Amino acid sequence: MDASLLSIQPSAAEPLYRQITGQIRRLVAGGVLRPGDTLPSVRDVAGLHAINPMTVSKAYSQLEAEGVLLRLRGKGMVVADLAAPPDLAARWTLIDPALDALARQARELELPADALLARLKTRLTEDPQ
């Protein structure tokens, strides 16, 4: 995995370590990161995103405690070999909080649902680069 695959937003309300853990969980659940894939070092992630290395270390440690990552001596952190890939329901539970927040914000801003869905569809089909 390349450290640039993570999108860290220092100005966001969500703590940085939670941004990292959430993104890695989604990358694993979506199959972008597979068992045995090596994660970038704490220093690489911290340096690229100009954040404190302890923040990255905290995120990696939390994912290790959850069984998502595995620390291999001499290799660093790798994606753990899960017994079964996450099913569709498990992947939905990872995105539901963001959908709830989006729906709440759209209601607060009185945005029409059809326009919101059209923008979301556009974002889903755009190249992330």
From TrEMBL:
<keyword id="KW-0804">Transcription</keyword>
<protein>
    <submittedName>
        <fullName>GntR family transcriptional regulator</fullName>
    </submittedName>
</protein>
<dbReference type="InterPro" id="IPR036390">
    <property type="entry name" value="WH_DNA-bd_sf"/>
</dbReference>
<dbReference type="InterPro" id="IPR036388">
    <property type="entry name" value="WH-like_DNA-bd_sf"/>
</dbReference>
<feature type="domain" description="HTH gntR-type">
    <location>
        <begin position="14"/>
        <end position="82"/>
    </location>
</feature>
<keyword id="KW-0805">Transcription regulation</keyword>
<keyword id="KW-0238">DNA-binding</keyword>
<dbReference type="Pfam" id="PF00392">
    <property type="entry name" value="GntR"/>
</dbReference>
<dbReference type="InterPro" id="IPR000524">
    <property type="entry name" value="Tscrpt_reg_HTH_GntR"/>
</dbReference>
